Fold this sequence. Notes:
The structure is a homodimer. Chain A is an alpha+beta fold. Chain A has helices at residues 2-13, 78-90, 130-133, 172-189, 203-214, 220-227; strands at 23-36, 46-52, 54-55, 65-66, 69-71, 96-103, 114-122, 138-144, 147-152, 159-161, 201-202, 231-237, 247-251. In chain A, the strands form three sheets. In chain A, strands 1, 2, 5, 6, 7, 8, 9 and 10 form an eight-stranded mixed β-sheet that branches. Chain A has a three-stranded antiparallel β-sheet with strand order 11-13-12. Chain A has a two-stranded antiparallel sheet with strand order 3-4. In chain A, β8 and β9 form a beta hairpin. Chain A binds chain B through residues 3, 6-7, 10-11, 14, 16, 19-24, 59-63, 71-79, 99, 101-102, 104-106, 110-113, 115, 117, and chain B through 3, 6-7, 10-11, 14, 16, 19-24, 59-63, 71-79, 99, 101-102, 104-106, 110-113, 115, 117. The first copy, chain A, binds a DNA duplex through residues 40-44, 202-204, 219-222, 224-226, 239-247.
Amino acid sequence: MFIKKAEKAFLKTYDSSVFEKLSVTTDLLVFSISDLKTNNYRKLSNKVMSVFLANRDQFPFKDCWSLPGGFVSPKETLEETAKRVLREKIHVDDLYLEQLYTFGEVERDPRMRIISVAYMALVERSDLPYSLQQSDNWFNIFREDNKIILRNEKDSGVEFDLNMPSVLAFDHQEIIKIGLERLKNKIEYTDLAFHLVPNEFTLTELQNVYESVLGKKLLAPAFRRSIKSKVIPTGNMTSGNGHRPSELYCYKNNEA
Amino acid sequence: MFIKKAEKAFLKTYDSSVFEKLSVTTDLLVFSISDLKTNNYRKLSNKVMSVFLANRDQFPFKDCWSLPGGFVSPKETLEETAKRVLREKIHVDDLYLEQLYTFGEVERDPRMRIISVAYMALVERSDLPYSLQQSDNWFNIFREDNKIILRNEKDSGVEFDLNMPSVLAFDHQEIIKIGLERLKNKIEYTDLAFHLVPNEFTLTELQNVYESVLGKKLLAPAFRRSIKSKVIPTGNMTSGNGHRPSELYCYKNNEA
DNA sequence: ACAATAGTGTCTGTCAGACACTATGCC
DNA sequence: GGCATAGTGTCTGACAGACACTATTGT
């Protein structure tokens, strides 16, 4: 107990400025799935991954697209900051959220030294307020060869090749690349895909989500076999699609 | 170009203290494999994972065991800080190093708000200076049931159950747990195990490393099949072990 | 009728788990 | 000799890739 007392005394007089402090921010990588409508009444819509970007209205990188983010305040955990940014900028609560990686290059921000802790969030589009579903902040993600192309969902003229240097603000294109990789890896051995579909979904929709995250086609019988243990049939059917109806399933949470 | 000029002007007058800054540290989780000698001359030594802990000589948590760490200085990247800590505290350079996770609970340090970016490093024991091979900083890691026990290699009386609250300084036992999980996952789909063995090793040694990381026994034929493509036989053999000699292999880097 | 998707059956090759077996050096 | 390990052969069952096939709707 002598130690405890001495420690208290130590803490009382501790000068927290011995080591220089740094600015810390949280950047948010919000992914969702977009429906790309087709003009053939029979065809299903294509599903594409998309990421939410904010157009910066102030320096630095004014008018550039960037990930939404915010400074970590001294009284907030990192995750609280991430959730606050989601609330303030995307007006949404209770998303799937995971810490992605921490970026600490010395010159990554021209203003000053800033450490950024990146978080990745997944949303089902229809869970968002209507204005955000329709906003021009969503960029569809296309992969051709080794390229990664971001194309604005509302204005297909606004397009970025993530392999080109500095098309987004700060090191945010690097963060997006790392997030895509993380998602690609984790979707195979976790149930993370279910955060990207509505409560009820067809197995083909779910398969399309896997395909757009993995960037490759899957075979339906194999996919159905592998996913069977994770879903429950609801008995409800789709209709009005110009082809055979399909059954709707929901996620079977194996924890419960 | 007008923007560029305006941005320069903005940066010149930017006040970096608008948002309150925080202290940032890097903590290092250094894992290696220990040989537990047996008293039977025929038997091979058991291999156990171990972690390097430092005994704190100052407040807070004076006399507690903790992960080695250091403050991130404004001119250093996070990885540079991690490498500096390795040099200063473990006197070693050029280890396998990867960022693990960033810890940002508000009260994790009693002095003040500190964000800690944890890095995980892997060492082969014989690559260390002799004094560090023999130091009393290594704790062997034993898993029984769901317990995780750390036992000091030099003094088996010093033992901690990581599931008990606050047996190590700060949130360092949480960091160790997360690191063990990461290692367990990554050893299956990466070549990370080779950082824990000498340049030349027998397949049984390698298998023991996998077993102690995974915490379970493997079948030799299956292990050999799965590892075959990653190693090259050197032609050298072990001897003097009281049983059949075994061939030494080295890592086959598939990049080159 | 037919386009498009839903959904199932089944063959095949690969590969991990399992176990048996042989080989070898040191006391 | 016999202990302890090294190293291989092979059977089996699970399962992914592949493909063929049937079923069902809206126009």
